Amino acid sequence: MASDTPPRRPSRPPFDPADPLGLDELLDEADLDIRRTVREWAAKRVAPHVAEWFERGEVPEVRELARELGSLGALGMTLDGHGCAGASAVQYGLVCLELEAVDSGIRSLVSVQGSLAMYAIHRFGSEEQKRRWLPVMAAGEAIGCFGLTEPDHGSDPAGMRTGAVRDGGDWVLTGRKMWITNGSVADVAVIWARTDDGIQGFLVPADSPGFTAIPVAHKGSLRASVTSELVLDGVRLPADAALPGGTGLRAPLACLSYARYGIVWGAMGAARSCFDAALEYAGTREQFGRPIAGFQLTQAKLADMAVELHKGLLLAWHLGRRLDAGRLRPEQVSLGKLNNVREALEICRTARTILGANGISFAYPVMRHMANLESVLTYEGTSEMHQLVLGKALTGLDAFRG
């Protein structure tokens, strides 16, 4: 006989201000362990020093940091074999999130090492190149950089002027690359150059005669990051320095797409840091006899910030699941970078208004994140370029060469 008692509904968990959408339920134990490990490392190892590094415009311990990140498995972590961790794309995204929550420069170190330099070697290199470089790079014992952007060619890499010509059995490279993360501390540079047969990737050891890395000074952004100009003055390389699969412009663009995926997560780390700072500050800062968190306009700002932050995290998770399933398209990465960096900047700027004058002090992370995100907004594809990528995908019409 059927019971007249209605089925009991499962109890709802309490509302968590740190996770209002319950996104942690989308993560498994391995995901949560990796996030916890990197968050604790970043809080202990980077957070106490990064404001000073930013103010000084240098990271004095970059090689030590690289080795420690290597021991965490954070370098080239989604790659398989050769000492790489073989982690999921979602787990890599969580690492980017936690690293950029302390500073974009630290996430950039990992992103360029793993998603650009190591990824290029892993995907396009010979077995000998992989054996030589990937294990030491995964351990952080060697640092890599990625030379595509030039002083006069950023959004249009097809116009690059750096050239490689044959001289007997060797290659000779001449040209300049600009805004290269890790450049001055790199042991190897992945350099893209124009040959008679088209674009070709090369591995250039930093001790090659004619190769010079010049630190970029007077930056107002990414100051806790090594940024350099690379000069190649007749750098002679053996034939086996060329990446066998690294031909055509599609090769470096594939690397960029992979790195942009990390930015989709990382930008939300910077946004979370600013949101947390604003929420805590609003609860303790008193004006007109009560905390400013009790005023309607402040609550409206906090609510809007929380909405965009957690929408961005949900988008990042969705793209990560698609990447793990082998279904992520470059246009979808463009959508993620365009949205999340743009919204992260707005969250940081709103946090600045809540903190008032204190928002410009390096005692708080807000102004530092704002400055960093101005670079993140334009590197690895400006907002306008990603808008045009989406515009072409939506309309079928190419506006790049309009």
Structural commentary:
This protein is of the alpha+beta class. The chain folds into three domains: 23-138, Butyryl-Coa Dehydrogenase, subunit A, domain 1; 144-247, Butyryl-CoA Dehydrogenase, subunit A, domain 2 (Beta Barrel); 251-395, Butyryl-CoA Dehydrogenase, subunit A, domain 3 (Up-down Bundle). Helices cover 49% and strands 16% of the residues. The chain has helices at 29-45, 50-56, 62-71, 89-102, 104-124, 127-138, 250-284, 296-324, 330-355, 366-378, 383-395; strands spanning 144-147, 163-167, 170-181, 188-195, 198-205, 211-215, 227-238, 242-247, 286-287, 290-291. Strands 1-4-5-8 form a four-stranded mixed sheet. A hairpin with a 2-residue loop joins strand 2 (163-167) and strand 3 (170-181). Helix 5 (104-124) packs antiparallel against helix 6 and helix 5 (104-124) packs antiparallel against helix 7 (250-284). The termini are far apart. The mean pLDDT is 95.
Strand and helix layout:
Layout (H helix, E strand, L loop, with lengths): L28 H17 L4 H7 L5 H10 L17 H14 L1 H21 L2 H12 L5 E4 L15 E5 L2 E12 L6 E8 L2 E8 L5 E5 L11 E12 L3 E6 L2 H35 L1 E2 L2 E2 L4 H29 L5 H26 L10 H13 L4 H13 L7
Parallel strand pairs: 1-4
Antiparallel strand pairs: 2-3, 3-7, 4-5, 5-8, 6-7, 9-10
